[in-house]
């Protein structure tokens, strides 16, 4: 199964389950974000999460976003549709 997660950045509090999903045999997990971790979070000591086998896409182009959003048979998970451009653009691209 292929899973594609769309976030604004790599969220350490969600990394564990996303990473675990990628460990399941037969799964491919992609995590698409605008940036790895905002500077404000780094300054406060937030870690860049361990992504393990997850395929991370930072700042994908509009073309790459459309390609990933339309992967055949994939499960698309969108976070922050009302507040962040990348997840919203990916959602729109997934509609065809």
Explain this structure.
The protein is an alpha/beta fold and 96 residues long. It has one domain (2-94). 36% of the residues lie in helices and 20% in strands. It is built from 4 helices and 4 strands. It has helices spanning 12-23, 39-43, 62-69, 85-94, and strands at residues 2-6, 28-33, 55-58, 75-78. A 4-stranded parallel β-sheet has the order 3-2-1-4, with helices on both faces. β2, α2 (39-43) and β3 form a beta-alpha-beta unit. It is globular.
Low-confidence stretches: none
What does the radius of gyration come to?
13 Å
- The spatial strand order of the largest sheet comes to 3-2-1-4
Strand content: 15-25%
The run of helices and strands is: EHEHEHEH
Tell me the span between the first and last alpha carbons: 21 Å
The tally of strands reads 4
| Largest sheet data | 4 strands, parallel
What is the mean predicted local confidence, pLDDT? 97
Structural class designation = alpha/beta
Helix content: 25-40%
Number of domains: 1
Which SSEs are present, and which pair or pack?
Elements: E1 2-6, H1 12-23, E2 28-33, H2 39-43, E3 55-58, H3 62-69, E4 75-78, H4 85-94
Parallel strand pairs: 1-2, 1-4, 2-3
Helix pairs in contact: 3-4
Write a brief caption for the model.
The protein is α/β, with parallel strands linked by helices and 96 residues long. The chain has helices at residues 12-23, 39-43, 62-69, 85-94; strands spanning 2-6, 28-33, 55-58, 75-78.
């Amino acid at each position: 199964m292929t899973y594609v997660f769309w976030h604004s950045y790599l969220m350490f509090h969600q990394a564990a389950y996303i990473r675990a999903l990628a460990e399941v045999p037969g799964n491919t997990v992609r995590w698409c974000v605008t940036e790895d971790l905002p500077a404000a979070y780094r300054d406060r000591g937030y870690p860049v999460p361990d992504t393990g086998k997850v395929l991370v896409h930072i700042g994908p182009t509009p073309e790459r976003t459309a390609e990933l959003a339309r992967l055949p048979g994939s499960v698309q998970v969108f976070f922050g549709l009302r507040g962040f451009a990348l997840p919203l653009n990916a959602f729109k691209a997934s509609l065809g």
